[in-house]
Design a protein that fits this description.
The structure is a single chain. By secondary structure, the protein is mainly alpha-helical. Among the domains are: 14-164, P-loop containing nucleotide triphosphate hydrolases (Rossmann fold), CATH 3.40.50; 170-234; 242-288 and 301-335, no CATH class; 739-807, no CATH class; 813-868, Arc Repressor Mutant, subunit A (Orthogonal Bundle). The strands form 3 sheets. It has a 5-stranded parallel β-sheet, with helices on both faces. Strand 8 and strand 9 form a beta hairpin. The longest helix has 18 residues, at 492-509. The chain is flat, with a radius of gyration of 35 Å. The termini are far apart.
Length: 878
């Protein structure tokens, strides 16, 4: 019997190879996603394209998604992500750094096989690689299989081209048979092969291989002829089962071991089975090695699926135990999460060190569900203070406050000081403060501990006490408490807590320079330490709000945008917190459409998470204000009701913001006196709690509602609060109190220069009303047009001031038509010809329009009409 050419030649894919090559070199995109049903040859096409690319100078690296690896965060990149105690951001940076080449190195090509089986974090890294152009990407996915969102976005967002690989045509299938068998096939046999495979290369390959080995396919009179008796097309699984099932048991076990733990370190496999068996499995194509030889995979995913489906539970546990034992003792570089899962699901006795380490790393990667699994197993094995605190912390992260408290109740004060995990006293105080909403007991826990602790431990305890002060709207106490803390004696986690608390406090105190300095120190900690990225987005939010309150509006928006770009590709809360912060500053610059969009995205990202601990509460407040200022009062009222129901006692420092959101809802429902009363109540809260920067925001809002009685207090605050907002707000309130239209116009310009366009629109609208009261019709129309133009650019903002200033041009229809042509630069004669009237008639209408508008020249009339040209003016029909 003649041997088949091995491997089978690539047939009928010339055009597809050309498309892949073009996709790697065309501008704007650098790569392709090859999609298709199982067995159509996606992997083979990708491998051949990569080989051709390598010949042209590309440096090729390969990863693969696997069914078993999907349960492990960063499983596909495990051999590059060898940092144990790291956040998703730190791991991503490590992967990028290890993958990337120097500037003078060859271009990098990343081949991703079965990308639909990637875990979410690996998928996000692939997406980021494509987005940033770090490498060319060739990815394969199985059509009809659900893929991670980040993989789907590769082609939906236009980063990579998508190629839907079709089965071979009949002619192509026949040519492949001819080449693979190195000889002609009789028509009856080729018809049968086509009927059974329908162009699916994998179907065809296994069908031919099985029949050749069984003797059902042989050469007769110079032609290959099939003597098989199958009358119906078997499924692919049956064909693969026949192929894999025919191997000896010891070779099959090699496949089983690889399938359970792929990608598997070659050293681990060599320690488990005889090298001859590995070679036999590799020669049969049952297993394969990556291009660099540092990982072993199953030859095709279906091999592993079918083999493992035949394994009973006991055998699976035994095989996992063999793998885990070698991984833990042979010094192989393995992902601790993969090792932890294998150990957890094996027949081995629990290993506290392996389980605890896996729990810690899963928590660092924000995979809290998996972390709880490991932590509970560790506690069941050894209920020590260390394992209990670890489990309690993971439960706290999941807002399971009662369960966490029940564990902490079993520990005494000394038990809670365990190296390597968060201090149990701080954990308890945080659990009481956020999930359990018991602020008084939370404070008492820290105060009691400070009386009992040593000076070193008290450094971190005081830091958390400062966090409690900041949350409770006690900024002066926050700063004085942190003055007793030596940052150099804190760990990175506590230092970041301290910088965040002081940034909130100093921003509220109006000391934006020091707030920015400490925020910068916090960013440095984040860059240098493998911490959970969630804290980084919070720090940027606090910094951005401090800048916003001070009046550095554009700078605040830049801070939130920069932080969003940093966390945009990370899953879960990191991204949602960053999006919420961008929504906050979008509201601050008056981009209502963007603010509403970002808040909605952040809320969807949070889902139900954060309702218990109040994590989304401060964004919910701002979302309510954005609804009200955009005029969607039904949504605003519903959002305010929801915000009120979800008020969280820990977040007292944002009480002025909550009251202001309530005031904006009242104002735009027509209850202006109520809105003013609420705004002054908010200002009084801020004053009583030593939050002068927030007090400025409240008194400015009261002036926007039409009540300038806070002018004297704003004048005092202008001397205490850094930044341009307080002086601008004081000048604005003084102008409003004096009914000084020109000063109100100047205040509008001040706010626009500052970046607070919503306030600029209100000041211009109030100027229009003041001009009208003074009988200056032209100036009133000019200010009104400016106010409405600014409001329109903000997303059609609404306010009492804008409603009061809304007046159309007082022209007849004919006057409006002529004035419009005048604003477009036409001469009187050209207007007369266009309107089919006399020049004298045109001059008369221009005179009448100028008189009604309160202007004295053609240029002034033209400028006024231009201002109104984009607004919905309705001329007098008379």
């Amino acid at each position: 019997m003649t041997d088949m050419v091995d491997p089978w030649p690539l047939t009928g894919r010339i055009d597809e190879l050309r498309l892949v090559s073009e996709a790697l070199t065309e501008g704007g995109r650098q790569g392709i996603v090859i999609a298709g049903h199982a067995g159509v040859g996606k992997t083979r096409l990708a491998r051949t394209a990569a080989e051709l690319a390598a010949e042209e100078g590309w440096a090729v690296r390969r990863i693969a998604g696997t069914a078993t690896g999907r349960a492990v965060s960063l499983g596909a990149f495990a051999r590059w992500a060898d940092v144990d105690d790291a956040s998703p951001l730190a791991l991503a940076r490590k992967v990028f750094g290890d993958l990337a080449y120097a500037d003078d190195a060859p271009p990098l090509l990343l081949v991703v096989d079965d990308a639909h089986l990637l875990d979410d974090l690996s998928a996000l890294i692939v997406h980021h690689i494509a987005l940033q152009g770090i490498a060319g990407v060739i990815a394969t996915i199985r059509t009809g299989e659900r893929a991670p969102d980040a993989v789907t976005a590769l082609w939906k967002d236009g980063l990579l081209r998508r190629l839907e690989l079709q089965p071979l045509s009949r002619d192509e299938s026949d040519r492949l048979l001819l080449a693979a068998l190195d000889g002609p096939v009789d028509k009856e046999s080729s018809d049968r092969m086509w009927r059974l495979s329908r162009g699916n290369v994998l179907f065809l390959y296994h069908l031919v291989e099985h029949e050749r080995q069984s003797g059902a396919l042989d050469i007769v009179d110079g032609q290959w002829r099939s003597f098989a008796t199958l009358s119906a097309s078997p499924s692919l699984i049956e064909l693969v089962d026949q192929q894999v099932g025919a191997v000896p048991d010891d070779v099959g076990e090699v496949v089983d071991l690889v399938a359970i733990a792929e990608p598997l370190d070659p050293g681990v496999l060599a320690a488990l089975v005889d090298p001859d068996l590995i070679e036999a499995a590799e020669q049969r194509g049952l297993i394969t090695s990556g291009p660099s030889g540092d990982a072993v995979y199953v030859g095709h995913p279906l091999y592993g699926e079918i083999r493992l489906s035949r394994c009973g539970p006991r055998r699976m546990r035994r095989l996992r135990g063999r793998l885990a034992t070698v991984m833990a003792t042979e010094g192989a570089e393995v992902d601790p999460l993969r090792l932890g899962l294998l150990w957890l699901e094996s027949d081995l006795a629990p290993n506290i060190e392996i389980l605890s380490r896996a729990a810690h790393i899963a928590g660092s990667r924000l995979d809290v569900g998996l972390a709880e699994r490991f932590a509970r197993a560790a506690v069941e094995t050894s209920a020590s203070p260390f394992t209990k605190l670890q489990l309690a912390y993971i439960l706290f992260l999941q807002e399971k406050g009662g369960a966490a408290e029940a564990i902490l109740d079993t520990l005494d004060f000394q038990d809670m000081a365990v190296p390597g995990v968060i201090d149990g006293v701080i954990l308890r105080a945080g659990n009481l403060l956020w999930p359990l909403r018991d602020t008084l007991t939370s404070s008492a826990v820290i105060e009691d501990a400070l009386r009992m602790g040593d000076e070193q431990r008290n450094q971190s305890l005081r830091t958390f006490r400062a966090v409690q002060h900041a949350m409770a709207a006690q900024p002066a106490q926050t700063v004085s408490t942190m003055a007793r803390v030596n940052y150099d004696r804190l760990d990175s986690f506590s230092r970041l807590f301290g910088y965040s608390a002081e940034t909130i406090a100093l921003g509220d105190l109006g000391d934006v320079d020091r707030a920015s300095h400490l925020a910068a120190e916090g960013y440095r900690v984040l860059d240098e330490s493998p911490l959970d990225s969630f804290h980084g987005t919070g720090l940027a939010e606090f910094h951005a709000y401090a800048m916003l309150a001070a009046g550095y509006v554009a700078e605040a928006h830049a801070i939130s945008e920069r932080q969003y770009r940093k966390y945009a590709d990370l899953p879960g809360l990191s991204q949602s917190m960053a999006v919420g912060a961008v929504g906050m500053t979008a509201l601050g610059i008056g981009d209502l459409n963007a603010a509403l969009r970002h808040f909605a995205t952040a809320q969807a990202g949070f889902g139900e998470y954060g309702n218990i601990s109040g994590l989304f509460y401060r964004f919910r407040i701002l979302h309510t204000e954005a609804f009200a200022r955009s005029g969607d009062m039904q949504a605003a009222v519903q959002s305010l009701d929801s915000t009120t129901q979800n008020r969280h006692p820990a977040y007292e420092y944002v009480e002025p913001n909550y009251l202001l959101a309530s005031a904006w809802v009242a104002a735009n429902r027509g209850h202006v006196p109520e809105a003013c009363e609420i705004a002054f109540r908010a200002a009084e809260f801020a004053r009583a709690h030593g939050q002068p920067a927030r007090e400025v925001m409240c008194l400015q809002a009261a002036a926007q509602f039409g009540d300038p009685s806070g002018v004297d207090r704003l004048t005092d605050l202008a001397a205490r609060v850094q930044g341009p907002r307080a002086p601008a707000a004081a000048r604005y309130a003084r102008a409003l109190a004096a009914d000084d239209a020109a000063a109100l116009d100047a205040a509008s310009v001040d706010f626009a220069t500052m970046g607070d366009t919503l306030a600029a629109a209100d000041a211009a609208a109030q100027a229009a009303t003041a001009h009208r009261r003074a009988g200056l019709r032209g100036s009133a129309l000019t200010s009104s047009a400016r106010a409405r133009s600014i409001a329109g650019a903000c997303g059609n903002a609404v306010s009492p001031a804008l409603a009061a200033a809304r007046v159309p041009l007082p022209f007849t229809r004919r006057e409006h038509e002529i004035a419009k042509l005048l604003s477009e630069g036409l001469t009187n004669r050209a207007i007369a010809e266009a309107m089919s009237v006399s020049v004298r008639t045109v001059e008369g209408h221009i005179y009448q329009a100028s008189s009604k508008a309160g202007v004295s020249s053609r240029a002034e009339l033209s400028a006024l009409v231009k201002q109104f040209s984009e607004l919905d003016t309705e001329p007098d029909p008379g």
